[in-house]
Specification:
Number of strands: 19
Shape: elongated
Distance between the termini: 32 Å
Structural class: mainly beta
Number of domains: 1
């Protein structure tokens, strides 16, 4: 298939174990979107855009491949058992106004470029990344509590304006920073952060660890990763819908 255009007030869904290939443009506007199994291959096409009023979900090991220029604008993104893969030199921006969750052994840009994916979450419901998930990219949380647990891993950057960032279980955050200057960062169990932690309050217990090996200014000089101006003043920008 060359192009896929959907403009509907109803739900959009795919199912079955086959492969849907779309070589050029994708634009899906719907009340909800469900990918319950199978593969959708965007084949490094020119554009992939989803405008979903409510929930977009991936279950049943559904796979999205070959995203090159992607935008997901949704109420909630729920990846309970699915995989989203970015094309080489591709990028994906996710704007979620009500919820963002990953579970099972789901992956989002696993092993990819940290700068290729950015998730902006503006809702108040708790953000949950649990299970054995893998996420590579920037995670920007406007106001919600964040729970990062299980045996999952995040590789990139975590920015939070919410009250709490909780790392528990055997979770690994291999990050430039957990940047939460007005939040409490809690670590329990065997959670590990490899990178900097910027927090209003930091609490660690159990076998949790923080491993920090580089100078902060070398990792994120002012103005280079979305917060801070040229004079080093805090200037965090969050997306809101």
């Amino acid at each position: 298939m060359d192009k896929l255009y959907v403009d509907s007030s109803q739900a959009f869904s795919t199912s079955g174990n086959g492969t849907l290939r779309i070589s050029s443009e994708v634009l899906v506007k719907a009340s909800s979107a469900s990918f319950s199994s199978g593969v959708v291959d965007f084949m490094n096409g020119s554009r992939q855009e989803f405008q979903i009023a409510n929930t977009m979900s991936l279950t049943g090991n559904a796979v999205m491949n070959g995203i090159s220029n992607g935008v997901i604008n949704c109420g909630s993104l729920n990846i309970q058992q699915g995989h989203i893969n970015i094309a080489e030199e591709g990028n994906l921006e996710v704007f979620a106004s009500m919820g963002f969750n990953m579970g099972g052994s789901s992956t989002l840009n696993d092993g990819g470029d940290r700068n290729a994916v950015r998730v902006d979450y503006a809702g108040t419901n708790n953000l949950d990344l649990t299970g054995n998930i893998r996420y590579t990219g920037i995670l920007n949380i406007l106001q919600a509590n964040a729970s990062l647990g299980g045996s999952g891993e995040i590789d990139g950057l975590v920015i939070s304006g919410g009250p709490n960032v909780n790392l528990h279980g055997n979770f690994l955050a291999n990050v430039i920073a957990v940047y939460a200057p007005n939040s409490t960062v809690n670590m329990v169990g065997s959670a590990t952060v490899r990178g900097a932690i910027v927090a209003d309050r930091f609490v660690a217990g159990g076998n949790s660890r923080v491993v920090f090996e580089s100078e902060t200014e070398e990792l994120f000089p002012p103005g280079t990763i979305g917060f801070g101006d040229e004079e080093g003043q805090e200037d965090t920008e969050f997306w809101s819908r």
